[in-house]
């Protein structure tokens, strides 16, 4: 196991600020502060006109474990608002199993077939990371709206090109940072906006669990800096609404050169900071702690919290109950993201205010720099040791 630490001032992020110096990101709008069946989402939208034009017909590209959870999440929403009409899998037999389980009428074995399907309005993209950008382009080229799991692209330049295409064609495009759509996040944001915690000084989050050696040794695994870090980074950006000025990075690589642990600190203006501890080697608390001058807040489960503690007061957010359990913890919460996509499409938007295109660009910028810092430092240490041995 190899470890390293490094410090760097961030490059090429100033252009992402607005005229007021803040991050070019509108504040999140209020969503649904409770269970779908008890409050808002289902009852509110059921009261709307139920014409077929309000239904988003989803295509799944491709069938994966994440796609299974997305389909389960859609099942708690009104069927006249969301339905899956097509899916794709290289092995038709696997696609047919998915189609039978979720009542999907069309099964394809190529992405091109799905892209050309006239019964698809929007595509949920969830293959391995290197395929995301290419598939987004393919679907946009065939006039499909796109919801893509993170990362949207592997580089900032790729994000810029993809966003330009979506806007030029008048199509909706969103990176799947679904946490932003959750009721607990909305409640916390309203508290922060009203300065209930005072000036935020420090954010700390942990995210990690033991992953199999088979996965972390695989060339297909991107490492914690690209797999887990985006979930933590988006939260820090969301809390501070600013671009970090510099960062410190430490971490470990396994023998295959994959980063399996990272300790990241983002430093913001005004002596504010965010620290993120990530690991595939041990189970972490997966908590978020936000410290302000007047109080503190804690979120359980960074990616999909059901409990928010504000100044020692508990706020619980029960997730909708699906007939089928999700494979990954709490991913039935994807239903909030899916409904955000539908509402944006109905309004003719090309991006969501909850996680916009500019944030996708910044995320690609930051995650790449963090990844490079960790790996470059290790390489420099190895070269230095080799020189000493000569």
Provide a descriptive summary of the structure in words:
With 390 residues, this protein is α/β, with parallel strands linked by helices. The protein has 12 helices and 15 strands. The chain has a 9-stranded mixed β-sheet, with helices on one face. Strands 4-3-2-5-6-7 form a 6-stranded parallel β-sheet, with helices on both faces. Helix 5 runs parallel beside helix 6. It is globular and about 60 Å long. It starts with a strand and ends with a helix.
Span of the ends, CA to CA: 23 Å
Q: Could you give a short account of the major beta sheet?
A: 9 strands, mixed
Classify the secondary structure makeup into a structural class: alpha/beta
Write down the Rg: 21 Å
Overall helicity:
25-40%
Reading side by side through the largest sheet, how are the strands ordered? 1-9-10-11-8-12-13-14-15
Mean pLDDT: 86
The residue ranges in which pLDDT falls below 50 over 5 or more consecutive positions are 12-51
Note the beta-strand portion. Answer: 15-25%
Number of strands: 15
Number of helices: 12
The H-and-E topology, N to C, reads as EHEHEHEHEHEHEHEHHHEEEEEEEHH
User: What spatial form do the alpha-carbon principal axes imply?
Assistant: globular
């Amino acid at each position: 196991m190899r470890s390293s630490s490094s410090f760097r001032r961030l490059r090429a992020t100033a252009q992402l600020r607005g005229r007021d110096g803040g991050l070019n990101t509108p504040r999140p709008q209020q969503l649904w502060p409770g269970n779908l069946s008890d409050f808002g989402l289902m009852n509110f939208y059921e009261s709307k006109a139920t014409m077929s034009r309000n239904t988003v017909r989803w295509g799944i590209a491709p069938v994966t474990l994440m796609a299974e959870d997305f389909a389960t999440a859609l099942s708690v929403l009104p069927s006249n608002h969301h339905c899956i009409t097509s899916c794709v899998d290289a092995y038709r037999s696997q696609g047919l199993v998915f189609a039978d389980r979720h009542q999907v009428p069309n099964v394809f074995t190529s992405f091109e077939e799905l892209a050309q399907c006239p019964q698809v309005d929007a595509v949920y993209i969830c293959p391995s990371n290197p395929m995301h950008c290419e598939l987004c382009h393919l679907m946009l080229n065939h006039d499909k709206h796109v919801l893509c799991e993170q990362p949207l692209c592997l580089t900032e330049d790729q994000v810029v090109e993809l966003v330009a295409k979506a806007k030029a064609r008048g199509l909706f495009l969103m990176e799947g940072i679904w946490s932003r759509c959750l009721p607990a996040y909305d409640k916390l944001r309203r508290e922060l906006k009203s300065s209930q915690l005072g000036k935020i000084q420090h954010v700390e989050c942990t995210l990690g669990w033991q992953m199999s050696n088979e996965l972390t040794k695989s060339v297909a695994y991107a490492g914690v800096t690209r797999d887990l870090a985006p979930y933590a980074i988006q939260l820090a950006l969301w809390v501070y609404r600013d671009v970090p000025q510099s960062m410190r990075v430490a971490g470990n690589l396994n023998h295959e050169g994959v980063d399996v642990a990272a300790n990241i600190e983002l430093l913001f203006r005004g002596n504010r900071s965010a620290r993120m501890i990530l690991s595939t080697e041990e189970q972490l608390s997966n908590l978020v702690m936000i410290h302000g001058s007047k109080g503190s807040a804690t979120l359980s489960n960074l990616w999909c919290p059901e409990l928010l503690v504000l100044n020692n007061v508990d706020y619980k957010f029960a997730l909708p109950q699906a007939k089928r359990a999700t494979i990954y913890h709490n991913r039935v919460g994807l239903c909030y993201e899916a409904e955000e996509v539908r509402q944006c499409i109905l309004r003719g938007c090309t991006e969501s205010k909850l996680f916009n295109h500019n944030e996708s660009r910044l995320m690609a910028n930051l995650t790449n720099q963090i990844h490079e810092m960790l790996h470059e430092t290790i390489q420099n240490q190895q070269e230095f040791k080799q020189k000493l041995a000569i």
